[in-house]
């Protein structure tokens, strides 16, 4: 008897595992993304709406949450349960916390960037590529500011900036640098306030 699996999903999974870069595998991944896209979009829409509503508490943002829930129920063909909503709220909180720990996107600060993908950074393997070095640069500026150092005179900042500019293939313009420094300083000040607030809430508990 032929052992070749007849189940379409199993065949697709084996094709992806054996040669993920083959034309067949790329077609399979594209088809899977298209099939899952509506549900993923509905989920993202609701999580984003919940994040905005939790931050503002406004009626407008609550109306957006209600609309997103209805869209989710239509897309998933079922009523949203309290457990589903709790999971979405938890994801919204996690996204917010993660966003506070992350640098701005390179393209939001720099006018141009190489059209390369920093796979090591995306996979969390290292911080040596373009995006990883950008993250290190933002982080060291934030750290230097939290210690009261002069950003432009800090040796660590200058070293990482040089590393990033070599990967970028050009120098960072003054307006781009000012925008990055402003974001990193704001992060340092916000995190300090957050930690102090958490410490005071914990006193006497």
What is the fold's blueprint, element by element?
Elements: H1 8-18, H2 23-56, H3 59-76, H4 82-100, H5 106-109, H6 119-122, H7 130-146, H8 155-168, H9 174-202
3D architecture notes:
- The chain is an all-alpha fold and 205 residues long.
- The protein is flat, with a radius of gyration of 23 Å.
- The chain has two domains: 8-100, no CATH class; 106-202, no CATH class.
- The chain contains nine helices and no strands.
Provide key terms for this protein.
mainly alpha, 0% strand, 205 residues, 2 domains, 9 helices, disordered N terminus
Q: What characteristic shape results from the CA principal axes?
A: flat
| Number of contiguous helices | 9
Q: What is the straight-line distance between the termini?
A: 69 Å
Please provide the count of β strands. 0
Along the chain, the helix and strand elements come as: HHHHHHHHH
Using the CA coordinates, give the radius of gyration. 23 Å
Classify the secondary structure makeup into a structural class. mainly alpha
Helix content: over 70%
Mean pLDDT: 84
The proportion of residues in beta strands is under 5%
Largest sheet geometry: none
